[in-house]
Design goal:
With about 450 residues, the protein is of the alpha+beta class. It folds into three domains: about 170 residues, Porin chaperone SurA, peptide-binding domain (Triger factor/SurA peptide-binding fold); about 100 residues, Chitinase A, domain 3 (Roll), CATH 3.10.50.40; about 110 residues, Chitinase A, domain 3, CATH 3.10.50. It is about 45% helix and about 15% strand. The chain is built from 15 helices and eleven strands. The longest helix is centred in the C-terminal third of the chain and has 31 residues.
Length: about 450
Amino acid sequence: MNHLRSILTLACLATLATASGAQGTGITDIMRAGPRPAPAPTTAPRAPAPNVQRSAEYIVALVNSEPITNTEVQARAVRILRDNPEAGRYSRQELLRLVLDRLINERAQMQVAKEQGIRIDDIAVDQAEQTVARNNQVSVAELRRRVAEEGLSQDQFRRELREQLTLIRLRDREIENKIKITDVEVDQFIRDQRGGTNAAIPPNINIAQLLVAVPESASDADVAKLQQRAQGLAQRARAGEDFTKLVQEFSDSPDRASGGAIGIRSAERYPPLLVEATQSTPVNGIAGPVRSAAGFHVLKLLSKSQPGSSDAVVTQTQARHILLLNDAKRTTAESIAKLNQFKQQVQNGTSDFAALARDNSQDGSAKDGGDLGWARPGQFVPEFEEAMNRLAPGQISDPLVSRFGVHLIQVVGRRDAKLSQAEQREAARAVLRQKRIAEATETWAQEVRARAYVEMREPPQS
């Protein structure tokens, strides 16, 4: 069964998106701060998980009197084994112990989120579900069918999406604003980078892909035929044909209109499958085809550089937005309806986006017609950036719900540019913030666990 690479999986990984070093206090500044898990394309199909049989239901632990059952531990273990073959190196009891430990941590953190009144509404969960579907290059209906095949009811899937979004929101609140990176630390990082002592820092890469999709119902003969098609397209690209034109003509990916470029970002924010496939590929070289759950990918490495270096190149986007805050006067649904009205007015030519932003947007960019300037990857929270990156210049998004309110986004332009000296410093600050927040998150999780009353009952059993 094809693996679903969802934010459920991503939220459990150590990989964090690149963050900016902005320290402002306005909403526009807050939007730019903090590393978050970033959505990624689907990965290669996984081997079937070993059979884990459920035994009778019973409580294995209490977290502040809230139970964790043996069934919960077993279900999570099955999914980990299915999605992460490396987990097979653990013995069954070791795996169950690690799973129980993770569930205890999550349960304790969810209780803190409840105490703080953090709530994720249905519209945010809807958007998360749509993001999962897009990242797996399937429709929402197909996503739901696959979720059911993997043994999750629709209610359970949405509940887990809501829980992971809640935990992300909590971790942002508890950790992000406490992280400060000094100019001295930035200076040292840049010196180390130029001296070659920061080799462990992942490079920034930009990969373009041509996807030959493989339907879920494809027979072995169909797969072989599609693989042959992908190999032929890879050969044409290696022979010197324009990769962008090949993508626009033959790719099955939604990003084909833009030439298949995924965008410049840290290698940590790319799917491991694509990073590994282009590891030894020179810039402008062709790799693949490589197989994922979506199909066969032919890849072109467009650029590769170290963050903060003098020759670093990034894809910058100039966007503007209208933000309506969530407050007692207007519900999320009412904000969405209002922004849909604005979008229709702009598309009909009866209103100007910048004028609407000046008159209606509820953040600091309103005075500039909603203009957010030229932004590099990682400056905005991931739900905003993911929506922005799907837009071609001139396009307007559907209303987007974020942790700040509801946005309407218009992309003005996009360019690949070398970083200025100031931007190099901010890129370096972002890398340092990412590392510091990862460390702080681990410490914070341990502190939350230590404050919770945990009563261990009977150990989980297969």
